[in-house]
Amino acid sequence: MGAARGLAYLHDECERKIIHRDVKAANIYLNKGFDAIICNFAFAIHMDHIVRGTIGNIAPEYLSKGTLPEKTDVYGYGMFLLELITGQRVFDLARLANDKDLMLLDWVKTNLKEKKWERIVDSDIKGYYYIEEEVKHLIQIALLCTQDNPEKRPNMSEIVRIMLPLGDGLLATQRWDELCNDEITNRSDEQWDSPRQFEQLSSPR
Questions:
Q1: Among 75, 85, 91, 205, which is disulfide-ready with 59 (CB 3.0 to 4.6 Å)?
Q2: Helix axes 156-163, 169-186, angle to 10 degrees
Q3: Alpha-carbon torsion 102, 153, 198, 80, what sign?
Q4: How many whole angstroms separate alpha carbon 150 and alpha carbon 60?
Q5: Backbone phi, then psi, for 29, in 5-degree steps?
Q6: Quick check: helix, strand or coil at residue 167?
Q7: Would you say 90 and 142 are in contact if contact means Cβ atoms under 8 Å apart?
């Protein structure tokens, strides 16, 4: 939440919009009170047309076209959430040796499609109590943030609204339904069979 609020401030509340360009777990620190602090603005101050950032966290439109809207940070934030949930790196050759997917986002989608929910959550926290519905909610937000079309991604202010304990449930549901419908339209294998099937895909066996 702290990271989401920080990015929303940079995008919407600063006198001049600031785009970080390298949002990832390694650039989000915790202070003594465990508040999230966004760090390393080295790339943000170079407003040139050179693609900068970390492989796997770079939004596809930025990598291919060099376009730099704030939605590139939204993509990085989504990947950051997946790193937190899975305990894995976004780009990992070891994962390719064991699975078909080199990139973390593809690996998560594959496991959702195959209804292997238990594989997604970081194995280091499986022995501890966590709220399953909250994890599902974070995965939904991460997938909303990492859509290929930047116009479909929510902005950081919307993400903050969705993540609040008494957040905008209608907005979250509406955004998720749009994503599921797009997946059905764009993929011949129909990765998500209906707008509501995430609950089935993410339910433990």
A1: 75
A2: 120
A3: positive
A4: 9
A5: -95, 165
A6: coil
A7: no
So which residues are the catalytic ones?
A: 22
DSSP-assigned letter for residue 47: -
| Position with higher pLDDT, 176 vs 153 | 153
Give, for 157, the enclosing helix (H) or strand (E).
helix 156-163
Q: Which residue range(s) make up the domain with 62?
A: 2-201
Domains in the chain, number: 1
In this structure, are residues 72 and 62 in contact, taking their beta carbons and an 8 Å threshold?
yes
Return the amino acid letter for 135: V
Residue 3's closest CA among 128, 124, 145?
145
**Tokens at residue 17, please?**
């919009």
| Cα separation, 110 vs 122, whole angstroms | 16
Cβ 99 vs Cβ 63: under 8 Å: no
- The rounded distance, in Å, linking the Cα atoms of 55 and 71 is 16
Look at the block and give the residue holding tokens 């594989």: 119
Q: What is the CATH number of the domain that holds 158?
A: 1.10.510.10
Residue 77 is encoded by which pair of tokens? 């934030």
202: Cβ contacts below 8 Å, ≥ 6 apart: 112, 117, 136, 139
- Which has the closest alpha carbon to 54: 35, 85, 75, 36? 75
Would you call 100 helix, strand, or coil by DSSP? coil
Amino acid letter for position 94: A
Percent of the chain with pLDDT over 70: 65
160-205 per-position pLDDT tens digit: 988 876 555 667 677 777 777 666 555 544 454 443 444 544 444 3
